[in-house]
């Protein structure tokens, strides 16, 4: 069995291109990973990696060895997961990257429900809009909104999120109520993700309207608060208002022109094998939001 020692570390280093990244993914020290790789190279009698100050790459022999070893590791992981799934006792840490009001108000509570159902599972939810490096950050999946770039990642749709425009009653009394999206060019608008707003009429898209205003923020809660304070008109997914519209704190604007919006997604690394806690969490969220509506 000693011949299998270090195989798992070898595969993770090969896929993450670094000892530190592999150690973070495995939850151990960099020195442990380095020792395991060195011992493995001694046993097989060949250098598996070419090391530099910046990164670690497979040698020609290492590449051939990796092609065989990765199937062994996946097979062992799947065998372990099959046993674990029969017991349905999830453990370890689920690491999620998220951003926006939808993730805070809806996804986080859903994951809390999932966490309560699995007492041995821990969840770390990081709210950050930056791009995720799944390997280096140790992130299992991310919640993202809008159009997705073709990045080789896997994306599963959670929900469609239609848009809604609103303003405070005070703003309308002072500056008037716009009756067509083009009139927004003469209004103060509160900008969240972008300053080009897309409206629709009877399901058909209109020309984008470029807006400007005195307040811009990538926090939807700050945008809503600025709108409630009378700083301008806002245009966001309807679910982002979190009761401000239904509670009467904000007034609907241009309701006949609200767009269908885009979608929120679960995005994760395109791997042949996902840990059971990740697969079940993703499946849980997809099922949880399958009949969700604004």
From TrEMBL:
GO biological process terms, semicolon-separated: DNA-templated transcription
Keyword tRNA processing attributed: no
Signal sequence residues: none
Similarity-based family: Belongs to the LysR transcriptional regulatory family.
Top-level division of the source organism's lineage: Bacteria
Sequence ranges assigned to domain HTH lysR-type in this UniProt record: 10-59
MF-aspect GO terms: DNA-binding transcription factor activity; sequence-specific DNA binding
Protein name, entry field: LysR family transcriptional regulator
Keywords carried by this UniProt record: DNA-binding, Transcription, Transcription regulation
Keyword check for tRNA processing: no
